[in-house]
């Protein structure tokens, strides 16, 4: 058929006439048989006539749906639909085809499609007429047309009002629900119910059971297989047409565009009806239960087949979840009667299992409910959120202050008044708690059993926002389970990168922007969730039971005071409740897995073509966003160092260092290939992506080092004080500045300043001489060792265009000040009598001089700070873009480094960790105990000190430490964690293939002391890494491949 305006008008005219005629015929067939037929065109109506009209409706709906998808014709078609009031006619047709109390198949005869029955209308309403299959086919075709029409609201605003007034979306949903709940006349006859019997009160199967007409339609109809795809498209288009991710309480959203403001109320009204909400909840819960039942069946099948021990263990977890299906079934059927609880949708062809399909369903539910549902209160956070997400809202500043807990009473009153004017915070069908429970149960089941490549984004975003908006007691009870679920969902943000035709798959392309931009909102919400403030009572009451220590901590929190660790002399504040739940729930391994999945695969193929290069650059930016929102702007990084599981923190630190190296080197290689970089940049620009991944990751890691320095330095003064000469005697106040965190403050986002008091109160500044303080110092020094050499290398190579050299200068300046601090303090005391008295009141740490010597050795020997400073200053002096103040800062920096090189008052630290491959030994040069003098008279004492310190660090890491690849230049991001890269249960030299990197581990066949994650690292370390000269077993042995033997050979 030619797609001409005249043909469109003809199609609309035919469809309108057929819909009205079918409505009249269906109404006539519903009249009780005892009454004479009404006069008019429908007199003597038959099932055959209704069936022919429904077939005509289907025949005209299909081409109209196609036309609505064609941009050349859809605007004109949308205007014509609004003028003809077609949505109202279709809504009336659906209401007549599936009225309340609808029963399929005439009770006196077979019914079926085209059957003619003489059934009578009983108390529940028994109607004869065309079978349920024809009615449902029409409903599916109407959904298809509706999904297409919602795409043209931007050009046809009057269509939005027409669709909303007609309640067509609600009518479609009601028809589908009534069809599922319909009683079958044939079933009633077989049960002996007779022609006029009412619906059964004990429905074992329900509307979607195997023997019902609805179930038969789901199994046999071609249109039934299209039901979920077109429902998905309709729901998504309604939300996307307004403003995706814009909940009723818009506390975290940018200003609306004019067209979004016009259509917002219409889109929300279209999805607020009880039928569409019940249908969505019914599908979600039914698919959740099907997933759990299938998992349990798989467990039973595996148990019957006698699976392996590993398989039995894995299936045991599935059995536990599957056994809970009946309980979930009863708990999750919110607002749904028994007749809706059976039957599931056909599995789409692109889905491999029920769990895979459930992931898609829960994502659609997340999109809709994120648009429709808000909790009853504004979140309360540890600090004010950035104003970048509050643009255009006149009450933004007051809302930010209320959320950050710093609002005045007047501002509190103004925000409360604005809250009272909000639209309904949830549809009538479900409350925020019910939506949370259904979505969380479904997402948890999907994450447990769906394929590893299944993506999820909207459902986790919905859960994070809702739990922040719940009352404190309700939020506290749900946080532990939520963080476990989020930790499973986070690594999946790396899925869907490539479908073979584009650098990111269709899941992310549906959002219209790059994956890094899609995921940024969720990451920002997660960062806010880490700052969530709960009243002490509920948070403590909801704490998991961790024995006597946990009970003591809970009691302390409930009393409003921090719990003291065992053997501690004073109480020590722990991290906030949400952070504790996150650490217990596996947040750190989840972050590490996400980073390794993002960069491990994309960096390896980044030079293969523009698509791959664009994919890598977007993955690098997403990695930077992950670290920025979850660890930097949330302010929890110092608390993570102090309170996190040591091995998890150490493994994450190592992965971040590798990520920085891989990102920097791959970007450098891409810049050498402009013929590859330019088309990749065009691909990124088309989806709002950028090539700033290297710069962003460099900045974020520099900021984390600054936060750790700020909190671990025992001379930190939290209160702002003017830089006065006398403060140099105050426990090292020499480095206190108006901006305590200059790197963090310069990164923003705009309007955001990290509050050092929040960082400390969240557990980032543990009391001195406690286990947490010791762990924080060890792991902070480990981060310096892993990150700072690469920061200086990239600064030397890529600044000032691609990285910001001032950040490296700022960090190096603080390390230099640590070296010079004892001398500065002594000089000040010698020249200022007031400083002597002040210094006597606040004595410096006893090991300050030894620690300063350790930092001096790290700067001068490990980093070659003199050579690096010389090169950077030469480049800076030749620059014509620097201002006078910046030149002065660089000049002062150069003098400071020169002073460090001339400082000889303190003893040197021993090179105890040279060639080491463990966290414990690698941390020694920056620890006070390892900074003892290395002269011949104290060698034995120093070795004993090193042995003692290594024992302490090994105990800190659980007695096992963190095994690292013996090649210091290792860049492998294989596997989900650094700890798993070298994991192997077999003895050294006898490793077998298995999890982590155990199947690839190599051991030097000469010294048998150094292990590698792969043969490439072994060869590189032997050839260029220095092991050939240092190997204890290579003395007197010739050859060029001393470590060539693989384990077990």
Automatic annotation (TrEMBL):
Keywords associated with the record: Chloroplast, Kinase, Membrane, Metal-binding, Plastid, Transferase, Transit peptide, Transmembrane, Transmembrane helix, Zinc, Zinc-finger
Root EC class: transferase
Signal peptide: none
The UniProt record lists the keyword Ubl conjugation: no
InterPro entries referenced in this protein's UniProt entry, alphabetically: Phytol/farnesol_kinase (IPR039606), Znf_MYND (IPR002893)
Any one cellular-component term (Gene Ontology): chloroplast
E.C. number(s) listed in UniProt: 2.7.1.182
Primary site of residence: plastid
Pathway(s) where this gene product acts: Cofactor biosynthesis; tocopherol biosynthesis
Family recorded in the similarity comment: Belongs to the polyprenol kinase family.
Protein's UniProt name: phytol kinase
Organism for this UniProt entry: Chlamydomonas incerta
């Amino acid at each position: 058929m030619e797609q001409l305006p005249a043909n469109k008008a003809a199609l609309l005219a035919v469809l309108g006439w057929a819909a009205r005629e079918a409505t009249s015929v269906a109404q006539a067939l519903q009249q009780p048989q005892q009454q004479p037929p009404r006069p008019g065109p429908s007199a003597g109506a038959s099932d055959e006539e209704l069936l022919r009209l429904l077939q005509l409706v289907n025949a005209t709906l299909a081409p109209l749906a196609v036309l609505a998808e064609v941009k050349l014709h859809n605007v004109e078609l949308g205007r014509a639909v609004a003028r003809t009031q077609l949505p109202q006619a279709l809504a009336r047709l659906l209401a007549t085809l599936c009225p309340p109390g609808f029963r399929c198949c005439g009770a006196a005869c077979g019914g079926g499609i085209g059957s003619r029955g003489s059934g009578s209308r009983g108390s529940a309403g028994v109607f004869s007429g065309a079978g349920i299959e024809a009615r449902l086919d029409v409903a599916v075709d109407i959904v298809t047309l509706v999904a297409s029409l919602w795409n043209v609201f931007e050009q046809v605003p009057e269509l939005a009002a027409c669709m909303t007034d007609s309640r067509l979306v609600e009518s479609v949903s009601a028809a589908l629900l009534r069809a599922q709940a319909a009683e079958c006349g044939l079933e009633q006859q077989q049960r002996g119910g007779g022609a006029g019997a009412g619906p059964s009160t004990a429905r074992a199967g329900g509307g979607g059971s195997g023997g019902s007409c609805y179930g038969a339609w789901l199994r046999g109809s071609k249109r039934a297989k299209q039901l979920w795809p077109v429902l998905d498209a309709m729901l998504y288009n309604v939300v996307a047409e307004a403003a995706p991710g814009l909940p009723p309480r818009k506390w975290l959203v940018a200003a609306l565009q004019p067209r979004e403001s016009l259509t917002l109320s219409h889109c929300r009204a279209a999805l607020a009806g009880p039928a569409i909400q019940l249908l969505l909840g019914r599908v979600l819960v039914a698919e959740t239960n099907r997933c759990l039942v299938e998992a349990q069946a798989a467990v039973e099948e595996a148990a019957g087949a006698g699976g392996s021990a590993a398989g039995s263990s894995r299936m045991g977890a599935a059995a536990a979840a599957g056994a809970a299906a009946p309980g979930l079934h009863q708990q999750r059927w919110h607002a749904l009667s028994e007749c809706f609880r059976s039957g599931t949708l056909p599995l789409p062809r692109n889905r491999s299992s029920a769990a895979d399909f459930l992931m898609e369903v829960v994502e659609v539910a997340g999109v809709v409910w994120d648009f429709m549902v808000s909790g009853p209160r504004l979140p309360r956070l540890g600090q004010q959120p950035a104003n970048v997400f509050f643009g255009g809202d006149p009450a933004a500043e007051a809302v930010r202050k209320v959320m950050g807990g710093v609002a005045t009473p007047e501002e509190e009153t103004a925000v409360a008044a604005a809250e009272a004017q909000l639209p309904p915070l949830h549809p009538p069908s479900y409350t925020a708690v019910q939506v949370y429970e259904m979505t969380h149960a479904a997402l948890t089941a999907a994450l447990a059993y769906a394929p590893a490549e299944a993506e999820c984004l909207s459902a986790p975003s919905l859960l994070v926002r809702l739990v922040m908006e719940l009352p404190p007691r309700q939020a506290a009870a749900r946080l532990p389970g939520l963080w476990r679920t989020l930790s499973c969902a986070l690594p999946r943000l790396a899925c869907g990168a490539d479908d073979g035709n584009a650098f990111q798959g269709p899941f992310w392309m549906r959002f219209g922007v790059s994956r890094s931009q899609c995921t940024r909102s969720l990451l920002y919400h997660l960062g806010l969730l880490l700052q969530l403030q709960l009243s002490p009572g509920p948070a403590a009451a909801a704490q998991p039971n961790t024995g006597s220590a946990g009970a003591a901590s809970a009691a302390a929190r409930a009393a409003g005071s921090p719990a003291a660790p065992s053997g501690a002399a004073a109480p020590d504040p722990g991290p906030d409740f949400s952070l504790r739940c996150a650490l217990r729930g596996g947040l750190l391994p989840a972050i590490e897995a996400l980073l390794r999945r993002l960069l491990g695969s994309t960096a390896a193929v980044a030079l293969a073509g523009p698509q791959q290069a664009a994919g890598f650059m977007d993955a690098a930016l997403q990695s930077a966003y992950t670290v920025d929102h979850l660890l930097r702007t949330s302010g929890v990084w110092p608390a993570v160092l102090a309170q996190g599981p040591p091995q998890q923190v150490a493994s994450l630190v190592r992965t971040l260092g590798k990520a920085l190296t891989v990102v920097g080197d791959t970007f450098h290689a891409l810049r050498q290939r402009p013929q590859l970089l330019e088309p990749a940049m065009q691909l990124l620009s088309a989806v709002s992506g950028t090539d700033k991944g290297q710069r962003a990751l460099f900045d974020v890691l520099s900021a984390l080092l600054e936060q750790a320095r700020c909190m671990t330095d025992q001379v930190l003064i939290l209160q702002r004080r003017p830089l006065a000469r006398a403060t140099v005697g105050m426990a090292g106040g020499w480095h206190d500045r108006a901006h305590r965190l200059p790197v963090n403050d310069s990164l923003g986002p705009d309007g955001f300043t990290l509050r050092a008091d929040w960082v400390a109160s969240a557990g980032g500044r543990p009391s001195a001489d406690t286990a947490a303080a010791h762990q924080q110092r060890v792991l902070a020094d480990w981060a310096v060792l892993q990150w700072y050499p690469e920061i200086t290398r990239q600064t030397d190579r890529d600044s000032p265009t691609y990285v910001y050299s001032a950040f490296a200068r700022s960090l190096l300046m603080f390390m230099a000040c640590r070296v010079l601090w004892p001398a500065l303090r002594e000089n000040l005391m010698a020249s200022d009598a007031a400083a002597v008295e002040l210094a006597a009141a606040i004595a410096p740490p006893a090991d300050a001089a030894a620690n300063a010597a350790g930092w001096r050795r790290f700067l001068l020997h490990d980093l070659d700070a003199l050579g690096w400073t010389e090169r950077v200053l030469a480049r800076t002096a030749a620059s014509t873009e620097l201002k006078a103040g910046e030149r002065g800062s660089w000049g002062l920096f150069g003098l400071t480094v020169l002073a460090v090189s001339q400082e000889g008052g303190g003893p040197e630290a021993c090179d105890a960790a040279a060639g080491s491959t463990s966290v414990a030994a690698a941390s020694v040069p920056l620890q006070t105990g390892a900074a003892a003098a290395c002269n011949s008279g104290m060698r034995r004492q120093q070795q004993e000190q090193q042995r003692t310190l290594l024992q302490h660090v090994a105990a800190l890491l659980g007695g096992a430490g963190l095994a690292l690849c013996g090649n210091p230049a290792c860049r492998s991001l294989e596997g989900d964690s650094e700890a798993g890269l070298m994991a192997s249960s077999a003895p050294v030299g006898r490793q077998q293939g298995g999890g982590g990197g155990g199947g690839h581990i190599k051991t030097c066949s000469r010294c048998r002391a150094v292990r590698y994650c792969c043969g490439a690292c072994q060869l590189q370390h032997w050839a260029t890494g220095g092991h050939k000269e240092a190997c204890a077993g290579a003395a007197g042995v010739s050859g060029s491949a001393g470590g060539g033997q693989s384990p077990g050979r």
